[in-house]
């Protein structure tokens, strides 16, 4: 739980949701990185498990020992036909560091909101995320790309990056939390969506204005 990327002018959806935890956990409420080890004993037997959905367990600040502990806890569930582990990060280069410990029944995801570095985050810039996701070491894993919250982009470059990542699915959506980001016109977003539909499954997220349907 928790993250230090400080994305989108403090309007990260997970940070906002964490404010509901005031009575449960001081560290959750303040979105400070920490670990609830008891959760590692409650791995579901079926379905899609979003591992650390409210933080970035692959962030540069996370000790190697912590990531190893989480992945070791998943070893008994490797190759279960009815179980998929979903990981998401804005620092996907660390996937490569742990490739031998990541369950083969995993989906590796990253956020690439644009091909342009709009400097609205302390996370690695989008190009670094793209380069990490096309690493040969990750070739055998299923992948996902989140283009959310989408920001102004160059259609040719962003489409090329995603095509080379070769994701099973791409999610596209606008900012729903009033972070005042440099958003592209809806027409440009729809052109990107139509191109992506030729190469993968596209999940179009509902946005606050009802522009994407």
Task: Provide an overview of this structure.
The chain is of the alpha/beta class and 213 residues long. It has a single domain, classed as Alpha-Beta Horseshoe (pyruvate-formate lyase- activating enzyme). The chain is 26% helix and 15% strand. It has seven helices and six strands. Strands 1-2-3-4-5-6 form a six-stranded parallel sheet, covered by helices on one side. Helix 7 links the parallel strand 5 and strand 6. It is globular. The chain starts with 12 loop residues before the first helix and ends in a 9-residue tail after the last strand.
Write the layout of secondary structure elements.
Layout: H1 13-18, H2 26-29, E1 47-50, H3 64-73, E2 83-89, H4 93-97, E3 106-111, H5 126-133, E4 142-147, H6 155-165, E5 169-172, H7 186-196, E6 201-204
Parallel strand pairs: 1-2, 2-3, 3-4, 4-5, 5-6
Helix pairs in contact: 6-7
Structural class: alpha/beta
**Tally of distinct domains:** 1
Can you tell me the overall shape? globular
Unreliably modeled segments: none
Instruction: Let me know the average pLDDT.
Output: 88
Sheet having the most strands:
6 strands, parallel
How are the strands ordered across the major sheet?
1-2-3-4-5-6
CATH class call: Alpha Beta
Rg: 17 Å
Enter the CATH topology name: pyruvate-formate lyase- activating enzyme
Tell me roughly what share of residues is in helical segments. Answer: 25-40%
Total number of β-strand segments?
A: 6
Distance linking N and C termini: 31 Å
């Amino acid at each position: 739980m928790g993250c230090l990327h400080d994305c989108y002018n403090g309007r990260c959806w997970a940070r906002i949701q964490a404010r509901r935890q005031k009575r449960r956990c001081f560290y959750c409420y303040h979105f400070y990185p920490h670990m609830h080890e008891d959760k590692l004993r409650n791995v579901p037997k079926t379905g899609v498990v979003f591992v650390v959905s409210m933080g970035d367990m692959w962030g540069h600040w996370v000790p190697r020992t912590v990531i190893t502990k989480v992945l070791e806890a998943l070893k008994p569930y490797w190759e279960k036909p009815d179980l998929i582990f979903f990981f998401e990060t804005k620092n996907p280069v660390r996937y490569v560091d742990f490739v031998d410990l990541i369950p083969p029944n995993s989906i590796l995801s990253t956020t690439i909101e644009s091909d342009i570095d709009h400097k609205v985050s302390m996370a690695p810039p989008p190009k670094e995320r793209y380069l990490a996701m096309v690493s040969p070491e990750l070739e055998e894993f299923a992948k996902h790309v989140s283009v959310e919250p989408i920001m102004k982009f160059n259609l040719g470059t962003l489409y090329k990056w995603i095509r080379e990542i070769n994701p099973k699915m791409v999610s596209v959506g606008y900012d729903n939390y009033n972070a005042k980001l440099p958003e592209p016109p809806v027409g440009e977003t729809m052109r990107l969506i139509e191109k992506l539909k030729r190469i993968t499954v596209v999940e179009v997220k509902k946005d606050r204005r009802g522009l994407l349907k």
